[in-house]
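Researcher: Quick one. two chains, 336 residues in total.
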Amino acid sequence: MAAEQAKVDPMHQFTIEPMFGSENWELAGYNIAFTNSALWMAIAAVALWAFVLGGMKRQLVPGRWQMAVETFTSFIDNMLQANIGKAGRKYVPYVFSLFMFILFANLLGLLPLGVVGVHPFTFTSHFTVTGVLAVLSFSIVLIVGFWKHGLHFFSLFVPHGTPWPMIPVIAPIEFISFMVRPFSLALRLFVAMMAGHVLLEVLSSFVISGMNAGPAYGVLIGVPSLLLMVGICALEVLVAGIQAYVFALLTSLYINDAEHLH
Amino acid sequence: MDAEAAKLLGAGLAAIGAGLASIGVGNVFAKFLEGALRNPGAADAQQGRLFIGFAGAELLGLLAFVIAALLIFA
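Model:
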């Protein structure tokens, strides 16, 4: 049967491959090949740069493009204002870049460019990438916290009004919940993106195997799977936005902890 | 039962966690909508908290997926 030969491997889309014959590039003993992951990071960065540059004309009466960019900046600005207050102003550049980079990465990975033979690579579906972004956020929290409050920053682990017999219990819990933050940040983005893409791939394998098994199976299995896939694609666009938003929102909450303690 | 079969069973059991997390996420949005319909004026200001709750509930479902993926692929 043809369906068994054409088995679709849902994890194949996440393989990292060196591009442009760069697989032997080395730096101090480490392989630094220019991979498809790096290529799509560069594409996301260039697309983001072009998007923001188009909106930096500073016209008094903004055009459509400037309006679009300003919507995003004021969205991030409002979020930081609401969560951190006045001190949030200075984190707008970081959180804005973080949010837009993740958003562009997620959306670029969903582009249906496979029909023209280019396979988009969602680099946010790799724990290494999201892990570095999370560590970036977490180290900003640590640096700001220790810079502003010194060793008093450790009072973060003892919430206000904790009765003193409870402190030996509460402090370790708070400490664990603090240390787990970078992992939860990174895991959430990486798993959400990976699960969505695996789901799309599995549904597409249903369509392919269904059609291969004959016209009756094709109508019975292939067509509903295709319709479901279209719906899931729309859901994935929503998830791409929500995950970028959640990453930025949690980063701003953690920065608020560092700025104001509890 | 050999180890491979046990792994696959465990991965399947982890899917229960994903289903439970979906109940949690549904609860978050249902309660938000309930409150928002009672007091629409206060709804917009609480959207940040809505997504914090959503993120917390969703994370546990995603962890179930991680466990399943680890059992199958690691």
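The mean pLDDT of chain B is 87.
Researcher: Thanks, that's what I needed.
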